[in-house]
């Protein structure tokens, strides 16, 4: 009973201590806030209102009154860079680096921000030099990622591989997919310069980093065909279906031309029709339609498109159906069908785009490296209308 009474007496005491501590903290906050200049609050309000120009004016005034505030200079430099005033951002960060009283960590931070200024301005040589000076500093991982971005912009793929490997070794994440793509870029250059053996050796490295890399398999077939080995090229291209059935549409034209080169066009067409039955695709339908038109004529092509349109109704499929009907249209209906074909074709082209899954950038061409956000393998291998129909199914 005495123990319970003691606890009852102590509760108000601890409550009073908490109240006193809170009052002391509040007084401290109020005291500190009174010391801040009015421009500080004006700058914060401008930032909240998304008005960087007013924020810069307010923070410049604070920096003039208190030039020793390093963090404020960092904020000011970022605001200049965001507004596009790179020259002033560079000057702010250079002034910070010139200060003798700046700690090693703050100096590294100022150098990193200066590198970002150069990168934003497109001064890649200066940015690269600045980021290299951060090796061994607390900002080394961020600098290495910036260097990787620079090497990709400059298409220096071998240096990009070295940078990605260094990032992996430092525990900054996995870069297997990117390294495989860098090897594919090198192989692509070798093929342009008609060096299929060098391309194949590089593509083996790409597949060692990412065995499901579809691009490496596509390019392997191209390299084998350049060496005159069409059968090996066909085997490589057929492996794409095992890696990713969705990518078959991207290799369909290569397969058809490969089978044509060995006088087995019918076999190739039957293979593609099998792919189409399992994995409907607008790109695949286009290739099969052209092949069937060549081998069996307009009636067979017309029947194919009619069947596919019933299975997966798309505007692009309708465009193909009208094209097939035009081949047998009577003279009195030719003008009318041509007008409908032109109208449908215009809308179909707008829907027949590839789209980046990261930034939403759309294009008529399929990209392995998005030109909008620089992400690798972010494009779906199907066109947007294909994806829309699949989503509704």
What's the CATH C level of the domain at 69-98 and 105-170?
A: Mainly Alpha
The total count of helices amounts to 20
* Low-confidence residue ranges: 19-49, 62-67, 389-393
CATH topology of the domain at 69-98 and 105-170: Serine Threonine Protein Phosphatase 5, Tetratricopeptide repeat
The percentage helix is over 70%
The separation of the N and C termini measures 72 Å
Radius of gyration from CA coordinates: 32 Å
CATH architecture of the domain at 69-98 and 105-170: Alpha Horseshoe
Count all strands and give the number: 2
Kindly estimate the percentage of residues that lie in beta strands according to DSSP.
under 5%
* Major beta sheet summary: 2 strands, antiparallel
Structural class: mainly alpha
Overall shape: it is elongated
Give the name of the CATH superfamily of the domain at 69-98 and 105-170: Tetratricopeptide repeat domain
Order of secondary-structure elements: HHHHHHHHHHHHHHHHHHHEEH
The spatial strand order of the largest sheet comes to: 1-2
The average pLDDT score comes to: 79
């Amino acid at each position: 009973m005495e123990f319970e009474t003691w606890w009852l007496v102590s509760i108000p005491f601890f409550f009073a201590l908490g109240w006193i501590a809170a009052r002391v903290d509040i007084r401290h906050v109020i005291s500190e806030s009174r010391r801040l200049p009015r421009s500080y609050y004006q700058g914060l309000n401008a930032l909240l209102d998304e008005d960087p120009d007013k924020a810069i004016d307010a923070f410049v005034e604070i920096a003039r009154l208190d030039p020793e505030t390093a963090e404020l200079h960092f904020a000011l430099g970022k605001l200049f860079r965001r507004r596009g005033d790179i020259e002033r951002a560079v000057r702010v960060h250079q002034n910070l680096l010139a200060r003798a009283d700046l700690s090693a960590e703050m100096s590294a931070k100022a150098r990193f921000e200066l590198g970002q200024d150069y990168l934003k301005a497109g001064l890649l040589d200066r940015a690269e030099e600045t980021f290299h000076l951060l090796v061994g500093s607390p900002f080394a991982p961020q600098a290495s990622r910036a260097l990787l971005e620079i090497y990709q912009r400059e298409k220096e793929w071998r240096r990009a591989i070295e940078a990605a490997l260094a990032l992996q070794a430092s525990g900054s994440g996995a870069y297997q997919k990117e390294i495989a793509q860098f090897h594919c870029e090198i192989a692509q250059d070798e093929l342009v310069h008609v060096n299929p053996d060098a391309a194949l050796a590089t593509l083996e490295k790409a597949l060692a980093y990412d065995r499901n890399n579809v691009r490496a398999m596509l390019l392997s077939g191209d390299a084998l065909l350049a060496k005159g080995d069409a059968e090996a090229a066909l085997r490589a291209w057929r492996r794409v279906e095992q890696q990713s059935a969705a990518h078959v549409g991207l290799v369909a034209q290569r397969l058809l031309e490969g089978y044509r080169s060995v006088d087995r066009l019918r076999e190739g067409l039957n293979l593609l029709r099998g792919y189409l039955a399992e994995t409907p695709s607008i790109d695949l339908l286009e290739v099969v339609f052209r092949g069937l038109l060549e081998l069996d004529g307009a009636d067979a092509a017309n029947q194919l498109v009619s069947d596919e349109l019933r299975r997966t109704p798309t505007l692009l499929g309708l465009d193909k159906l009208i094209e097939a009907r035009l081949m047998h249209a009577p003279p009195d209906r030719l003008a009318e069908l041509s007008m409908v074909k032109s109208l449908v074709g215009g809308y179909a082209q707008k829907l027949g785009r590839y789209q980046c899954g990261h930034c939403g950038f759309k294009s008529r061409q399929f990209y392995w490296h998005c030109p909008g956000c620089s992400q690798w393998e972010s494009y779906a291998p199907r066109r947007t209308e294909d994806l829309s129909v699949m989503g509704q199914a």
